[in-house]
Design goal:
CATH topology of the largest domain: Tumour Suppressor Smad4
Largest sheet: 6 strands, antiparallel
Strand order of the largest sheet: 7-6-17-14-9-10
Helix content: 10-25%
CATH superfamily of the largest domain: Probable inorganic polyphosphate/atp-NAD kinase, domain 2
Number of domains: 2
CATH class of the largest domain: Mainly Beta
Order of helices and strands: EHEHEHEEHEEEEEEHEEEEEEH
Number of strands: 17
Number of helices: 6
Length: 265
């Protein structure tokens, strides 16, 4: 078992957690370069890291950004706010290492959404791809097709295309459903739709979703809150399930308990 360590040093408290985690690493474990420089250790670039599991110290944004850089299964140690995608708290590091060394964990493979703009592939999304107006409060018209079926024109501030993992994130705040992680689906959620007829749509994961921006009106494509791509209007965007998966290291099997502990109160 080779464990990697990466910490988002921009978050308060991450350095202290990284120091504690570093003290629990064995000789064969590896540390990401920028993290290692803060710890006085030898490091390696994240993209070049060879590890069985990567401990990521940070919040949900750190997890999403890291998934874009490596296929290694991630175990999140929360040093952010909600930390829905993270698995453990900073005060349980010793237990985390013991579970990993003893093999008392499981790997959850999660669906990712592939996004293409006029045929050009963008980074995959673990949570969601969002197309929204580039101007605050300006409604845009989006023509949506699912497979061979034309859904119609949706007038809204934007459209969220989310995975089951992302159903508890931006899509939820926009009125989308909470999706059980065992479901293989993609959710289309209008963002502040005009009129009462536009509702979220749950599609099978084998669906190909095509979205056309009607007219030359500026929009922005945002993937997992990390990658922004400006759109001038008129582009065709295609969404589908990616061939790759996001791999999470999990100790807790209860998705609904996670919802209660992370999203209520």
């Amino acid at each position: 078992m080779k464990i990697g360590l990466y910490a988002n040093m921009e978050l308060p408290g991450s350095l202290a957690i990284a120091r504690d985690a570093s003290a629990l690493l064995s000789g064969g474990d590896v540390v990401e370069g920028s993290t290692a420089s803060k710890l006085g250790r030898k490091g390696i670039e994240l993209e070049e890291m060879d590890a069985d599991i990567l401990l990521v110290i940070g919040g949900d944004g750190t997890m999403l950004k890291t998934f874009m850089r490596t296929p290694i299964p991630l175990l999140g140690i929360n040093s952010g706010n909600v930390g829905f995608l993270t698995e453990s708290r900073k005060d349980s590091l010793r237990d985390v290492f013991q579970r990993l060394r003893e093999g008392r964990y499981r790997i959850e493979e999660k669906l990712k959404v592939s996004t293409a703009v006029d045929g050009v592939r963008m980074p995959d999304a673990v949570n969601e791809s969002v197309v929204h107006s580039s101007a605050i409060g300006k409604v845009r018209h989006f023509e949506i097709t699912v497979g061979r079926n034309r859904v119609g024109i949706v007038r809204s501030d934007g459209i969220i295309v989310s995975t089951p993992t992302g159903s508890t994130s931006y899509s939820l705040s926009a009125g989308g459903p909470i999706v059980d992680p065992s479901a293989s689906v993609i959710v289309i959620t209008p963002l502040a739709p005009y009129g009462i007829s536009s509702r979220p749509i749950v599609c099978g994961a084998d669906s190909k979703i095509v979205l056309k921006i009607v007219g030359e009106r500026g929009c922005m494509l945002v993937i997992d809150g990390q990658v922004e791509h400006p759109l001038s209007g008129g582009e065709k965007l295609e969404f589908s399930a990616s061939a790759s998966r996001a791999r999470f290291v999990r100790f807790d099997h209860d998705f609904y308990r996670r919802i209660h502990s992370k999203l209520t109160g």
